[in-house]
Amino acid sequence: MKPVCLRPKQGFDMSPNGRAEDIEAAAAAWFERREWSNWDSAAEQALETWLSESTAHRIAFLRLEAAWERAERLKAIGAGVPPGRVPTRASFGFMRAQAAIPASEGPAMVSGVAHDKVGWPAGPKWAVGFFSVAAVLALVVWYHTEARWNAYGTPVGTIAPVVLADGSRITLDSNTRIEVALDTDRRLVRLDQGEALFDVAKDPMRPLIVEVADKRVTAVGTEFSVRRDSDEIRVLVQEGRIRIDGGRGPAGANTAEIDAGGEASTRGGQIAIERVGLTEVERDLSWREGYLEFHETPLPQVVAEFNRYRVQRIEIDDPRLNAIRIGGRFRCTDVNAFLALLEQGFPVAVTRNGTRVGLHRR
Amino acid sequence: MFDPLFLSILSRMLQGLDRWFATEVLPHEGLLQRYLLHVWRNPSEVPDLIQEVYVRVYERARDQRPQQPKAFLFATARNLMTDYLRKSRVVSIDTVQEVDGMEALIDEMSPERHASAREDLGRLAQAFDSLSDKCRDVIWFRRVEGLSQRETADCMGLKEDAIESQLARGIRTLARAVFGAAHETGLPSSKAGIRYESER
């Protein structure tokens, strides 16, 4: 091997785009500033300008954004830590201990960490340790010792996908819980709470059935979402066709089929079918990309949507505000942009008392 | 390399080319960094090299996405080094071929090939723990509890400007942990005789 020096001569311009270190620092400053309460459209414009100045700027910024998304996993490490408290450094020690456990432990699952024959033992220490492992996937997965059901859930503020062994993808919205059993003749999912989007792998011999409250939604290969609020449900179909049938009355008595662009919702157990169109379905499903989208939506409904992603709720303290209608697209977790818009565009004052957010009339 | 769940979460947050870059290119940053540290004499220049490689890859991908992003990334890195070295007139074409051979070696030894999601989390937690108290609190409230900057300051009993630059500092550290993987594992050290270094 001929020894050679891989070193450019002195003075050679290594970084025609500017020094990486400086650009990263600038990107980080923008990244932070965007979250300040005094962020406005002028600042937004300045950021856009900075981003468009060079590809290096854009990359540095998107890299931090991607890392921030990734850092969401810290959330699950903190399971069991009450809101408003930061875990001590020592509290991650258990996690390093966990890392020594071979990854092959437990039954093989496409997604999720399963603990076979362990059940759900009492004792906070064990529970915290378990959460830390599950946290790896930003999902809580546990195993029923006696049954073939697997459960998956998301904490408030987290959206997470689940990939089933058949290739179907389920995206769980904030604060959602499902149970899944894959049988040879059918695929069963129970939606216990929240909202889930199903991208069903085609398998005509094995329909996928979502049981929600006393209704069943059946699909062969399609994309649709099911949302549950208490015992009322709402189904949106983006692709293909699904069948929904209710639990009351004889089998088949309360059955409806819905095509792409259709919506089924229940009130008091009765199913109402509406053709809302693909545009609206897309809009209502934008949460899967981390966004909430509204179109002339009443304020209470908008606030309720944001609250699905928050532990500390926003509350409307003056009923006169209920008449306000909101349009626009917001990041689920960025309530600030929304509150800023409210204050700018409407006679609304936002008060923050500790972590409680109240909306008043100005 | 990274688990599919992480990649799919990412893919929902960023759009188009940015999304592609974040899911197909950035996860190789740790490997790229170690590769460059290995073949490039001056380690302090490696961050700038990586930046240039990224710029080239991104701009090329704007026209057409490479079928094999990882191979394209390393080919770009090699070309960049070749360009630099040609301009500096220090290197021979033989060396570049040697550099070629390095890739397979590094790939084999790449810890990422076996890195589990759990290890990724460990690295993240370690980076999180390495932050100063204030910075760590800010990251926690913002990222984990989803509080705004102002709510975070309230929670910490501080004014908003008292936590200025903490988030910026924290995210840089976390990004290095997530993509940079600057920890020392897997690669033979220069003692193994692979590093190209001599007077000439």
Give a verbal description of the structure.
- The complex is a heterodimer of chains A (362) and B (200).
- Chain A is an alpha+beta fold and 362 residues long.
- Chain A has nine helices and 19 strands.
- In chain A, helix 2 (41-53) packs across helix 3.
- Chain A is globular, with a radius of gyration of 24 Å.
- Residues 1-11 and 93-147 of chain A have low confidence and may be disordered.
- With 200 residues, chain B is mainly alpha-helical.
- In chain B, 66% of the residues lie in helices and 0% in strands.
- Chain B is elongated.
- The model of chain B is unreliable at 7-12, 91-97, 105-114 and 183-200 (pLDDT under 50).
- Classes of the chains: A alpha+beta (362), B mainly alpha (200).
Share of helical residues of chain B = 55-70%
CA-to-CA gap between the ends of chain A? 78 Å
Radius of gyration of chain A: 24 Å
Q: Rg of chain B from C-alpha positions?
A: 19 Å
The count of DSSP E runs of length 2 or more, i.e. the number of strands of chain B, is 0
From the spread of the alpha carbons, the general shape of chain A counts as globular
Q: Kindly report the oligomeric state of this protein.
A: heterodimer
- Supply the helix-strand structural class of chain A: alpha+beta
Q: Tell me the greatest interface.
A: A-B, 87 and 90 residues
Helices and strands of chain B, in order, run as HHHHHHHHHH
- Major β-sheet of chain A, in short? 14 strands, mixed
Helix and strand run of chain A = HHHHHHEEEEEEEEEEEEEEHEHEEHEE
* Backbone shape of chain B: elongated
Query: Whole-number average pLDDT of chain B?
Result: 74
Strand content of chain B: under 5%
What is the number of helices of chain A?
9
Task: Give the averaged pLDDT of chain A, no decimals.
Answer: 75
Q: Which parts of chain B are unreliable, with pLDDT below 50 for 5 consecutive residues or more?
A: 7-12, 91-97, 105-114, 183-200
- What is the number of beta strands of chain A? 19
